[in-house]
Amino acid sequence: MAQRIVIENCSIATVDADDTEYATGHLVIAGNRIESLGAGRAPEGLENVGRRIDASGHLVTPGLVNTHHHYYQWITRGLATDHNLFDWLVALYPTWARIDEKMVYSAAQGSLAMMARGGVTTAMDHHYVFPKGSGDLSGAIIRAAREMGVRFTLARGSMDRSEKDGGLPPDFAVETLDGALAATEATIDEHHDASFDAMTQVAVAPCSPFSVSTELLRQGAELARRKGVRLHTHGSETVEEEKFCHELFGMGPTDYFESTGWLGEDVWMAHCVHMNDSDIAAFARTRTGVAHCPSSNARLAAGIARVPDMLAAGVPVGLGVDGTASNESGELHTELRNALLINRLGAHREAALNARQALRLGTYGGAQVLGRAPQTGSLEPGKLADLVLWRLDTLAHASIADPVTALVFGAAAPVTASFVGGRQIVENGRLLHADEDAIARSTREEARRLARLAAR
């Protein structure tokens, strides 16, 4: 019989289909699943209870789900701080093209640690820079995620359109078409787990329209569908990208993606800032998902994504940190607040998003776009026990009556406990399975080593 953990005396926001909430409730974990939850105290006479948690003063929510990131950028934070996307990429690609396995492992640890201690239980990484001779970068990222204890999707990226082909990356920073496809397939074969409680999954993820060939997009989509995995890329991030697509392909990004097989319920795209009505309708019709990255969009002056319109149309939308060279904080729980506030600067003003919609973006919406909604993203019996206890009875939040409003509108709430598949990974804001101070030292050393290499 699986050992049980009983959590009691807490507010609960389930983020289920009915947005069920309990002002004072309980939740029972059995093994790696949620066994039951409801109002009041847990049932009497439960057997094999290994632990009881009095969660008075806490809100329990599903664990946060991050849908877009670039972990390697942890060691290039704070650079090119006054650039738009294209200028920022041109400034940083020569540095990124010198990364190696040790740097990528350390950067992945830093990125994962920052998210995990802030309530992320399911994470992803879109890694697309594979310099020749740099080692097993995919393996290093997956190892870091496994050690941290988070559920993880590696979006195995690629680039084959360099400066000589009219792209942005330096020539030495890209792969060949055949090399990228072969390496992506090998990564799927070695690491992808399709099971219900999988800790590691792999997606096919050519980087962007301006860094990959049409053939890599087309054959990448065919590879993903042959292997039964998801597809991810950047789309419609900036006006410059839209101009690039019109000049090179004679059509906008969404039409271009559709022409290469890149719209569908197995696809999600990062940013999607510059979408017209027909673009949104195409995403809704095909159930193509969106990773909304509000802080990064603001940092790079990309614009405000039309998230309220996407949601109204039925487009699946989740939240993303994005790489920490364009969102130096590297946290997802602050994106709940930023998504709400930034979207209220758009056309819908105060009606754009409310606190519960923001929480849904960061939990169930993210699980949807990663293809994990049957397993995680909401608190329901039978789902994986991926959940967070947010402390809301301290100075920062105690005078806000509604706990979901406190979590979303208030300061970043402390994480008292975070569970992934019933295994606790955070306690009182500290990681249980990683040494944060050692990671800080390692990331500082690797950032300095990369800066020295790039300066040569």
Automatic annotation (TrEMBL):
Keyword Glycosyltransferase among record annotations: no
CDD domains from the UniProt entry: ATZ_TRZ_like
Pfam families registered for this protein in UniProt: Amidohydro_1 (PF01979)
Claim: Mitochondrion is one of the keywords in the record: no
The name this protein goes by in its record: 8-oxoguanine deaminase
Domain Amidohydrolase-related: 59-422
Signal peptide feature range: none
Protein EC: 3.5.4.32
Organism domain of life: Bacteria
Keywords: Hydrolase, Metal-binding, Zinc
Lineage per the UniProt record: Bacteria, Bacillati, Actinomycetota, Actinomycetes, Kitasatosporales
GO molecular function annotation: 8-oxoguanine deaminase activity; deaminase activity; metal ion binding
Gene3D superfamilies reported for this sequence: Metal-dependent hydrolases (3.20.20.140), Urease, subunit C, domain 1 (2.30.40.10)
Enzyme class: hydrolase
